Amino acid sequence: MTFWGLFFVLVILPVFLIIYLLARGVKAQNAVLLIFSIILYASAGVGYLVLIIALSFFGWYTGRLISYQRKRAGSTKGFLVSGVIVLIAALGFFKYTGFIEKTINDFTGVGLPVLKIALPVGISFYTFKIISYLADVSRGTVEHETNFGRFLLYTMSFHHVVQGPIVRYGDIRPQLVSRNLTKTEFADGLFRFIIGLSKKVILADYCGSQADLLLPKGAALASQPVLTLWIGSIFFTLQMYLDFSAYTDMALGLGHMCGYTYMENFNYPYVAKSITDFWRRWHISLSLFFRDYVYIPMGGSRVGALRHVFNLLVVWFLTGLWHGSSWNFVIWGLYYFVFVGIEHALRHKVSKAGPVRSFFGHIYALFVVNFGWVIFRFSDFGQLKMAVRGLFAGSELYDQQILYTLRGNVFFIAVAVLACTPLFKIIEDKLSKVADRGGAAEFSVTIIKTAFTAVIFIWSLFAMAGNNYTPFLYNQF
């Protein structure tokens, strides 16, 4: 189930959009979107389809029971806790069974058979959507959805089921009932979809190929010079943002083409000047989920110092664990716990922002994030130790090959770096202001934007035709 294959882009998407736009009324359009979502999801496995429908029905019916209890002024806690336990158990079974068995074997040597259970597509995302729905119904911030079809569309719309964003039901409910698609919104959605597609198949995948070459997994890692490993880590850092934000661009673009507006999931995280700032900008929907449904209910910062540290520890442990069933992900989460905790402790002792502090804050954040992605990359502890040793204590500083690589990729690296900044968005906004003048100015901007879109779309098609694209990195989560 992909957004970036040639068959999807050239066949499935056009057919879907034609049928969707010909459908009269919101109910008919919802039906078209749900049917296509079911078909696309079933292509990943009929068993996965049965699972998502079953869990969606469970969440929907549990929400109904919670709503009934609220109307009777009864306690909703029992239904809420039961619902969350079932959903977490389902996620845990598919995602963490093998990890738990392997961990037990490593610590005890009992030799349990390690089950290899395929991870259902998008389960980490749609279970969190259902949990947020149950919590919001329990709090009374949203009403229970009486129509299961609408609720199922919320949980499994192909726009966001695979990699988010983790949309809230309260945000999407009005759009499920009534929405108005304009030509401008459709055009903006198409443009953003193509931007995301090109970001994925042109920039992210190339960065990934360089990361695999320079920061490899396997025996070749031991022989890489220090500079080669650092450049490889930078390519991987670029790949992580370009790959994941590309999916978000495509998801939000698809939404706009259908009249939906979903929350932004990224706000240029690599321009952050602290780690706290980085996590306000990276995977925003996940950060908000843990804030609203874990951190704040535990007391947030409105508790004693030790309890606050514990609350942060739980959130970052869960953040790491959510990303994968391996201890390196837990270490990655706790790594950020340390930096966020230190920044929180020093927040009143550091001087106010200025150009010097901003500059060094940016350098500090980039270094911490870049090294964090190295931890994220290697699930094998032996490989991770080898990578860290090579980065900081390698026997060879550099070789001629890395210099050739850098010289041959200067333009590409510059474009990839700039794509991680607001520069292109600023240019787009300035062009939009010029177009607002109307007349020749509007016509010129339209020609420029159309030509640019056509060029990168054709380039993307050639990249896909050459089979030079890889699955989205966050597919595995």
Question: Which labels suit this protein?
Answer:
mainly alpha; 19 helices
Summarize the structure.
This protein is an all-alpha fold. The chain is 72% helix and 0% strand.
Q: How would you characterize the overall build of this protein?
A:
The chain has helices at 6-22, 26-42, 46-71, 77-108, 123-139, 148-156, 169-177, 183-214, 226-257, 275-281, 284-295, 305-323, 327-345, 355-377, 381-393, 400-408, 410-418, 423-435, 439-465. The protein is an all-alpha fold and 477 residues long. The chain has two domains: 6-179, no CATH class; 181-273 and 395-477, no CATH class. Helix 9 (226-257) crosses helix 15. The longest helix has 32 residues, at 77-108. The radius of gyration is 24 Å and the shape is globular. The model has no long low-confidence stretch (mean pLDDT 92).
Structural class given helices, strands, pairing?
mainly alpha
Please provide the ordered H/E string of secondary-structure elements.
HHHHHHHHHHHHHHHHHHH
Helix content: over 70%
Number of strands: 0
Sheet-strand content, in percent, reads under 5%
Global morphology: globular
Count of DSSP-assigned helices: 19
What is the domain total for the residues?
A: 2
Mean pLDDT across all amino acids? 92
Distance between the terminal alpha carbons, to the nearest Å? 14 Å
Cα radius of gyration in angstroms: 24 Å
Low-confidence stretches: none
Largest sheet: none
Protein name: MBOAT family protein
Keywords: Acyltransferase, Cell membrane, Membrane, Transferase, Transmembrane, Transmembrane helix
Subcellular location: Cell membrane
GO molecular function: acyltransferase activity
